[in-house]
């Protein structure tokens, strides 16, 4: 870490970086989940059902699972960033 920067600024930088990484991870997770949900919905959807209904169901399911995944990723990331910030503070104190 830089000796010229104050500790608070260093900690803030660390947290900001963690948050950026988290948001990127959440976006990729959502994309993966949506893709997987679409695949599953295609396999599970009844063959004779109208395409419009199947499409709506797929969209709804993918949205729901994506929401869950993003929530989970956000939770995980906040925990991680908090841990990282605490670690950097400990290091800075030394």
Describe the structure.
- The protein is mainly alpha-helical.
- The protein contains 2 helices and no strands.
Structure summarized in a few sentences:
This protein is mainly α and 94 residues long. The protein starts with 6 loop residues before the first helix and ends with a helix.
Topology:
Elements: H1 7-44, H2 51-93
Helix pairs in contact: 1-2
Distance between the termini: 12 Å
Rg (CA only): 20 Å
Q: Considering DSSP H and I runs of 4 or more, what fraction of the residues is helical?
A: over 70%
Beta strand count: 0
Shape: rod-shaped
Biggest β-sheet strands, sense, barrel: none
Keywords:
94 residues; mainly alpha; 86% helix; rod-shaped
């Amino acid at each position: 870490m830089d000796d010229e920067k104050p500790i608070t600024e260093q900690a803030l930088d660390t947290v900001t970086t963690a948050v950026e990484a988290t948001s990127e991870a959440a976006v990729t997770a959502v994309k993966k989940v949506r893709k997987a949900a679409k695949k599953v919905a295609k396999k599970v959807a009844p063959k004779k059902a109208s395409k419009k209904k199947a499409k709506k169901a797929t969209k709804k399911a993918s949205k729901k699972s994506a929401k869950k995944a993003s929530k989970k990723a956000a939770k995980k990331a906040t925990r991680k960033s908090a841990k990282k910030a605490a670690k950097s503070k400990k290091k800075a104190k030394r």
